[in-house]
Amino acid sequence: MNTVTLLADPEAIRLDCIHPSLETITLVVQTAAARPMCPRCQRRSSRAHSRCVRRVADLPWHGVSVKLELHMRRFRCQNSLCTQRIFCERLPRVVAHYARKTVRLNAALELIGFAVGGEAGARLARELGLTVSPDTLLRRLRQASQKESTTPSVIGVDDFAFRRGRRYGTLLVDLERRLPIDLLPDREASTLSAWLSAHPGIKIVTRDRSKTYACGITEGNSSTAQVADRWHLLKNLREALEKLLKRQLQQKRYRSEQRSWASIAEETEANSYLERSRVRLLPHLLPGKSQRRSNSIRPPPLKLP
Ligand SMILES: [Zn+2]
Predict the structure, then answer these.
(1) Predicted confidence band at 2 (pLDDT cuts at 50, 70, 90)?
(2) What spacing in Å lies between the alpha carbon of 265 and ligand 1's midpoint?
(3) Radius of gyration of the chain (CA)
(4) 75 CA → ligand 1 middle, Å
(5) Domains of the chain: which residue ranges?
(6) HSE (CB half, 13 Å, CA atoms) of 60?
(7) How high is the pLDDT of residue 287?
């Protein structure tokens, strides 16, 4: 069960005393292992050589910084075949060799760095009582990424521009951890093929519609499944919708123009009919002829346009 304890590893270290001050709390800690292990040959030794003191930063208490004063021992390796004659005992769950921060403090800084980045992470850490610079935070992120770099099973492949229109590279992303894992100097099929050959175990590769990447993936590992990535699927959908809407808009505009021309033609035909009617009836409207034909049937009054 993962329980939170005052000390990082109670089985490996023992708290002797606490020295509080206004700005710092110092925990004086002794190592507890009776026969530590040689880091080179993994043999245990009981021959103490000397003592040393390490001071490392630990997680703060309510914003007050905490220092561990580690009183450690050096031992002689009792394996005559080992090249390591003297070694300092290790505390892998407390602090790494030569590190200045405890493992759990570094883990907290990594979490902050991954969540909000370098500058913002340093500001947030300062508010929480953790003193760290943005550069240190970014360095911790890079080290964490390298430490956890194992061959992924699902990756994404896409190109990026070193200089738009001139030179392009290839970005490889671990889609399960959502982290970039490598950059290739170009976007050639042979380069991608060589990378995949050097990293067996990849099961699925998502890519764009590029035939170059398709060839590279097939050459590198023919058993790898290739799928179109979500961004390019949405891009395809958007382009298809744009074409459909553009075509329908053109058809609607064409039909509207056809109706306009038809109404103009009907109006012209009506005007022409009225003109012909007026010419035909004009003699009947003249005064002399109207009197002579007063007894005949009179045409109805004509409304001229
Ligand atoms: Zn040894």
Answers:
(1) low
(2) 105
(3) 43
(4) 10
(5) 8-96, 101-148, 154-228
(6) 15
(7) 64
What's residue 284's pLDDT? 76
Distance (Å) from CA 10 to ligand 1 centroid: 25
Domain 154-228 class in CATH: alpha beta
Structure tokens at 5: 């304890």
- Which pair of structure tokens corresponds to residue 20? 């509080």
Ligand 1 centre to CA of 74 (Å) is 12
pLDDT tops 90 at residue 243 = yes
Residue 36 Cα to ligand 1 midpoint, Å, equals: 11
- The set of long-range contacts for 237-240, using a CB threshold of 8 Å and a minimum separation of 24, is none
Residues 6+ apart with CB under 8 A from 112: 121, 124, 125, 128, 130, 137
Q: Cα(48) to centroid of ligand 1, in Å? A: 13
User: Which residues are near ligand 1, the ion (C-beta closer than 5 Å)?
Assistant: 38, 40-41, 77, 79, 82, 84
What is the 91 CA–ligand 1 centroid distance (Å)? 17
**What's the gap in Å between 107 CA and the centre of ligand 1?**
30
Q: What is the mean pLDDT of the chain?
A: 86
Q: Quick one: pLDDT at residue 156? A: 92
- What spacing in Å lies between the alpha carbon of 88 and ligand 1's midpoint? 11
pTM of the complete model beyond 0.90? no
pLDDT tens digit sequence for 28-75: 999 988 888 898 888 899 999 999 999 999 999 888 889 999 999 999
